[in-house]
Design brief:
It is built from six helices and eleven strands. With 228 residues, the chain is an alpha+beta fold.
């Protein structure tokens, strides 16, 4: 793996799919749900709850050799009568699975969708949030939150088509931190359980301690984060 590799973090939903990747050397992505590009150097495979003790973590990566657009029936020839047999999928051709030197867990359960990272981040990460590539301001704030012991999730889905930059789970609900000025208040899944703090990106560079104090004050007002 090269530090400059473009890596697609992809969901590995079942043991069957992992075996297909291992033995047959391909991974499938529904065309309708595909990310912007599948022309990447490598896949990082995030395993779901179906994997028992290995759930909610990335254990394996694989080099990408190429891709093609096929139907589900062409991929899974024993399931030609499946309701989605005619739907299109990207067939990502991959090389041998490679086990990471250390697994990369999600410290809290979260919904994982496709996102991009780099080989450098994949080798250095200690948890899923470390893989997410953000602006300089987002990286500064992420590092500062960790240093202050504030446990946050990055790029967190807070509602339909609503993603907050950081979400901090508190005793009385969830605190969302938004960088920049949103065009309109977010439409929340559960409005009573969320509160938002909006931070100007310039403030992160100009007065990061003040930004952290505002976030810490909001966390305290929501009952704190409690024990890990």
């Amino acid at each position: 793996m090269n530090p400059t590799d473009l890596v697609l973090v992809a969901l590995m939903p079942s043991r069957r799919d992992l075996e297909i990747a291992r033995v047959l050397g391909w991974y499938r992505i529904p065309y309708k749900k595909a990310p912007k590009t599948v022309s990447v150097d490598r896949l990082a495979l995030y395993q779901t709850a179906r994997f028992g003790d290995e759930k909610w973590a990335i254990h394996y990566t694989a080099p990408v050799l190429g891709h093609e657009l096929v139907t589900r029936a062409e991929l899974l020839r024993t399931e030609v009568d499946h309701p989605r047999a005619g739907e299109q999928y990207f067939k990502i051709q991959i090389g041998p699975l490679e086990k990471l030197p250390r697994s990369i867990p999600s410290l809290r359960w979260r919904r994982i969708t496709f996102f991009y990272t780099t080989g450098e981040r994949l080798l250095a990460a200690t948890e899923i949030n470390d893989l997410i590539v953000g602006s300089e301001e987002r990286e500064l704030l992420w590092t500062a939150l960790k240093e202050r012991g504030l446990r946050a999730e990055r790029n967190y889905e807070a509602g339909k088509n609503v993603v907050v930059d950081f979400a901090l789970l508190c005793q009385l609900g969830t605190l969302g931190v938004l960088l920049g000025q949103p065009a309109a208040p977010p439409k929340l899944k559960e409005p009573g359980e969320w509160r938002y703090v909006t931070v100007a990106e310039s403030a992160v560079k100009d007065d990061l301690p003040a930004v952290l104090r505002d976030i810490e004050r909001a966390v305290r007002q929501m009952g704190g984060q409690g024990a890990k």
